[in-house]
User: Which sequence fits this backbone?
């Protein structure tokens, strides 16, 4: 058993999670000092994200051979993301109204303390209109994009760089090989860092348990409960249907990604598993160019869990403060959410910041009502991250099937356990090799 646990990152993370809860309850003062363990793990992961996205996207595009294929994948990705996030927003709105979440709370505005919002109002100013958002995609300098770890800016440069390598051809083959070898080194470093996942999860869970207590873990309130039920329904019904249309089943797919999902559950961050997810999707039989474009783009444009959270939280605040919403308010919420949700990734405290920015567009709802969801935001963050990750992985499968860039038979064999996932490099592979972690 101990030998099996020493080899399985999944079991190690689960053990770290259980020990974190026990430590948080038994030694609350000590556990309150363990937050840096979780934050440090996520920070270690994030320092490599820009380089990983750059290497994978450049390798995928330069080796694709046909730039028209890259353009098709990009267009199909944007179309898919808009459709699915719109469905998520509408489902969140319907569930909030059907259950009347927040009704009867009778929260009066004078009971809310605007000071509890901290610097959210200041950070909300980072959210601008659509034109400014598009301009912000263009980095002031390439080095600045990497220094700021702005994934969308890095992605834009990577697409341009990979396309240029593709057009130059054989005379730039040395640069292509250099980037490929660099990716080997980066993934080796990532394999070393991911070994620390159980420690990161332990620290994050211990801190959270000591701060909120077991009662908070058991009774998070109707909003949190409804949010998780809605996310589960969205994954099972909507994403499950997408997987069936793609020729695969959802449950084996989730089992295949169980290690990554467990890490996300412990850290409330999907950034921590981005490289492993990309390797696993390639092993599933999906082309590297599709994986390299869809996953990084989806991290900013395909936020299904966040979309559900946004409309649920807004209606909850409106109901709790006794604010009636007209049909025009609901349409405004949907339209504004479609824009603001695209800027959620990469902004500190993004969920609350984007929620505040969306509320300011609906004058009928008091922005100070945001204070109501502050206490449970971390718990909802786990559901947001899990749903976002599953949504992006399913999107990659769907777009690969749409593009005919997936070996469905191989995928079914892998999900059926007939072709196990190995992190060992394949001889002669042009792709970055996978590491055991």
Assistant:
């Amino acid at each position: 058993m101990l030998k099996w646990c020493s080899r399985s990152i999944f079991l190690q993370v689960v053990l770290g999670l259980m020990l974190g809860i026990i430590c948080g309850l038994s030694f609350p003062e000590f556990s309150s000092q363990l937050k840096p363990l979780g934050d440090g793990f996520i920070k270690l992961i994030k320092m490599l994200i820009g380089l990983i996205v750059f290497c994978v996207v450049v390798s995928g595009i330069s080796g694709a051979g046909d730039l028209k294929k890259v353009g098709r994948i990009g267009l199909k990705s944007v179309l898919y993301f808009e459709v699915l996030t719109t469905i998520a927003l509408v489902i969140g709105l319907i569930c909030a109204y059907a259950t009347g979440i927040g009704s009867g709370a009778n929260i009066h505005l004078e009971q809310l303390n605007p000071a509890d919002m901290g610097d959210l109002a200041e950070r909300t100013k980072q959210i601008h209109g659509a034109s400014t958002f598009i301009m912000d995609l263009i980095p002031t300098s390439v080095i600045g994009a990497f220094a700021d770890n702005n994934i969308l800016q890095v992605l834009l440069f990577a697409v341009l760089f990979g396309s240029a390598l593709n057009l130059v051809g054989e005379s730039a083959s040395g640069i292509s090989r250099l980037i490929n070898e660099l990716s080997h080194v980066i993934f080796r470093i990532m394999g070393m860092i991911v070994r620390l996942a159980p420690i990161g999860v332990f620290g994050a869970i211990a801190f959270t348990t000591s701060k909120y207590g077991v009662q908070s873990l058991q009774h998070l309130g109707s909003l949190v409960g409804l949010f998780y039920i809605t996310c589960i329904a969205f994954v099972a019904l909507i994403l499950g249907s997408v997987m069936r249309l793609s020729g695969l089943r959802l449950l084996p797919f989730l089992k295949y990604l169980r290690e990554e999902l467990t890490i996300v559950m412990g850290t409330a961050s999907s950034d921590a598993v981005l490289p492993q997810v990309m390797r696993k999707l390639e092993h599933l039989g999906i082309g590297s160019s599709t994986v390299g474009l869809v996953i990084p783009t989806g991290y900013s444009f395909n936020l299904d869990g966040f979309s559900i959270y946004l409309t649920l939280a807004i209606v909850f605040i409106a109901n709790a403060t006794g604010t009636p919403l007209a049909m025009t308010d609901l349409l405004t919420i949907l339209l504004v959410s479609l824009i603001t949700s695209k800027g959620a990734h990469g902004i500190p405290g993004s969920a609350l910041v984007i929620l505040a920015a969306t509320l300011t567009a609906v004058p009928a709802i008091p922005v100070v009502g945001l204070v109501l969801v502050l206490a449970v935001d971390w718990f909802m963050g786990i559901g947001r991250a899990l749903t976002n990750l599953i949504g992006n992985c399913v999107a990659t499968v769907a777009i690969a099937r749409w593009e005919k860039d997936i070996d469905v038979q191989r995928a079914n064999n892998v999900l059926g356990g007939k072709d196990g996932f190995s992190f060992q490099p394949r001889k002669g592979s042009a792709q970055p090799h996978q590491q055991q972690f």
